[in-house]
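In the design runs reported in the main text, the only information available to the sequence generator was the tokenized backbone. The following block is the verbatim input for one such run; it is reproduced so that readers can re-run the procedure and compare outputs position by position.
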């Protein structure tokens, strides 16, 4: 049978000399057979195949990890680390592990943090980093380096990289940040600079494609449980009480979905990938009325990007964008709370009714990473370091089917990880909540 495996090309720096990996002399490692990753080691994008269709090509990525030879002399490395976009649990852990990994694994001594996101390259003084300084950063939420949205001026950023002499750049951010990283990589390549560029995807929404999950996601789901539990107590303690929780998720509903499955107290989960409507047969109001009649209370979880198409807005609001170029969403939680109250007053005048609205957005994204995400952040950081030291550039590190791989930046920047509502997991949500299939009902 012909081998139909297609291995994704990974950009590599040229003109640098190969040298022995210093891990050979590192007292904490005992390199043995299989320790170093060979060029032929790959990770398949899919592990489940239909053997009856042998013609389907298999996509594979180069496996992440240390190489026997590296292309950088550690004493000549000048590394820059930048955090961009919104906050996410684990950002400080990634920074810490990049610093400690570069310092302890490879002997790099020039490591700098770029403050305030992309604009910090050309408008602020970098912070020199070392293991002692970052020692306890993983215990703190947010990012000690500070972050911001926007400020992406490609020419100024690459000029600053070139003039400052950075030859390794580690970029931590979400999908918009990764698109910016692609442009930086392209411009660095056009100028023929010997600078390794790597992205470490950060998005609490878990909407980065190809990789299994983005860091901070599991912490976010865990924290969402507290908000759902509070909403459940409030709803259960009232007459005709509804607990309404808005969770993060602009374009994808992964946090809402996983929090719903983990909680089991949720009666309805609304996500961007699955439309819903309020009035009429099979609508949200009809479902909630029956739930209140049967149980006396209900808990409703909604992702921030759900229902945006049915929220009334003026022309100016339709055009408004944030500094990252994203459509400014209206607050679906505030709108839904108001709509629920208007509905009840219209249909059940003089009957008791309460809606308790909880928005834990900033509480969720500002906390330190939990144990699982902390470990994950370490593996991401070390994988990135190994790749850059080996001379790879223009890539993202991340797990694919549980195995860490190097993925071209462009692929990650262009791919979204959306909830597949045809997947058994969404059917599981509906079986747990007993909510109707709003889209099918509407089309019917």
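Verbatim output:
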């Amino acid at each position: 049978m012909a081998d139909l495996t297609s291995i994704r090309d990974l950009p590599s720096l040229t003109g640098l000399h190969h040298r022995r990996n210093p891990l050979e002399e590192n007292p904490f490692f005992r390199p043995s057979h299989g320790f170093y990753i060979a060029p032929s080691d790959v990770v398949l994008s899919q592990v489940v195949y239909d053997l009856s269709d042998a013609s389907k090509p298999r996509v594979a990525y180069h496996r992440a990890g240390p190489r026997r030879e590296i292309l950088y002399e550690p004493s000549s490395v000048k590394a820059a680390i930048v955090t961009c976009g919104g906050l996410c649990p684990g950002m400080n852990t990634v920074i810490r592990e990049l610093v400690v990994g570069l310092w302890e694994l490879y002997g790099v001594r020039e490591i700098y943090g770029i403050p305030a996101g992309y604009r910090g390259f050309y408008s602020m003084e970098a912070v020199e980093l070392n293991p002692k300084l970052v020692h306890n950063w993983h215990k703190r939420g947010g990012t000690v380096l500070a972050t911001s949205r926007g400020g992406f001026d490609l020419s100024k950023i690459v000029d600053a990289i070139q003039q400052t002499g950075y030859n390794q750049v580690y970029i931590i951010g979400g999908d918009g940040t990764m698109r910016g990283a692609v442009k930086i990589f392209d411009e660095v390549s056009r100028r023929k600079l010997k600078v390794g560029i790597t992205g470490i995807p950060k998005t609490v929404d878990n909407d980065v494609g190809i990789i299994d999950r983005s860091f901070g996601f599991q912490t976010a789901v865990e924290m969402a449980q507290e908000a759902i539990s509070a909403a459940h107590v409030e709803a259960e303690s009232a007459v005709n009480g509804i607990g309404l929780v808005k969770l993060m998720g602009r374009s994808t509903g992964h946090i809402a979905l996983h929090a719903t499955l983990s909680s089991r107290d949720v009666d309805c989960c609304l996500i961007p990938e699955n439309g819903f409507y309020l009035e009429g047969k099979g609508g949200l109001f009809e479902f909630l009325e029956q739930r209140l009649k049967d149980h006396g209370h209900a808990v409703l979880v909604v992702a921030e990007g759900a229902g945006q198409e049915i929220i009334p807005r003026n022309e100016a609001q339709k055009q408004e964008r944030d500094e990252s170029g994203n459509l400014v969403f209206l607050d679906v939680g505030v709108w839904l709370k108001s709509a629920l109250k208007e509905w009840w007053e219209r249909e059940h005048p003089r009957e008791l009714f309460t809606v308790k609205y909880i928005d834990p957005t900033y509480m969720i994204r500002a906390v330190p990473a939990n144990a699982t995400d902390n470990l994950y952040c370490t593996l991401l950081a070390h994988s990135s370091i190994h790749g850059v030291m080996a001379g790879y550039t223009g890539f993202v590190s991340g797990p694919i089917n549980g195995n860490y791989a190097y993925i071209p930046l462009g692929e990650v920047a262009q791919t979204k990880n959306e909830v597949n509502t045809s997947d058994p997991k969404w059917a599981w949500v509906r079986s747990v909540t007993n909510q109707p299939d709003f889209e099918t009902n509407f089309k019917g």
